[in-house]
Amino acid sequence: MKALEKTMVVLAFLALVSQTIRHAYMLWFEPRNSVLDKFDKPKKGEIEAATSLDDLVRRYEPVRKQADEARQERAKSEKPLTYEEERQIEPFKSEHELRDAITDWEEKSTEIHELWFFWTVGLVLLVLGVMIYKKLNRWFGLTLVIAALSEFIYWTSPTFFGGTHEFDRLLWHKLVLSLISLLLLIIVIRINHVFADRDLAPGYR
After folding, report:
1. Domain extent listing, the chain
2. Can you give the pTM of this predicted structure?
C-alpha cells in the first residue's frame, strides 16, 4: 500500500504543480495580441474590453439588426449566403464574432459554477477519505482520497481558449483552487506520513 500511496501523491503533485504554472502563464505572460487584430471588425480588443455579458449583448444588438436587414435585402435580389460565406462579409462577420463571444462568456460562467461545485465535492471526499483512512479502513480511505484528488486535478485543469473577462475570471478561479489543492495534498502527505520510512522508525506517527 505504501508504494501505491507514494505513487499517487507524486503524480497528483506533478499534475497540480504543472497546471498551476500553466494558469499563471496564461494570466500574466501569454502574448494575446496580434498585428492582425486591427483588421478585425469588431476588433478583438473591443470584445475583450467588455466587462459583462450585458455589455457584449449591447454591442451585439445593433450589429444583429444590421445583419438581419442585410439578409432581407439579399433574399430579395441575390442567392442567400452560406454560413462560411457569412463569416467573411460584414456585417455578418461582426455578428458571428460577437455571438461567439457571448456564447464563450456563457460557457465560461457555467464552467466556473461547475468548477466550484465539483471541487467542493472533491473536498468532502478528501475529508471523509482521510478520516476513514485513520480510523476505519486504510484501503477505502485511500480510494476516497484518490477520488478527491482526481476531482481537484480534472476540474482545475487548464482552459486553453477564450478572449473575454469571464475567461480571465475562470483562470483566476482555477489558479486559486489549484494552489489550495496543492496545500491540501501536502497536508494529506503530512497527516498520513506517506513518505515516512516506518521500517526504520517503528511506531512512527
Report:
1. 2-192
2. 0.80
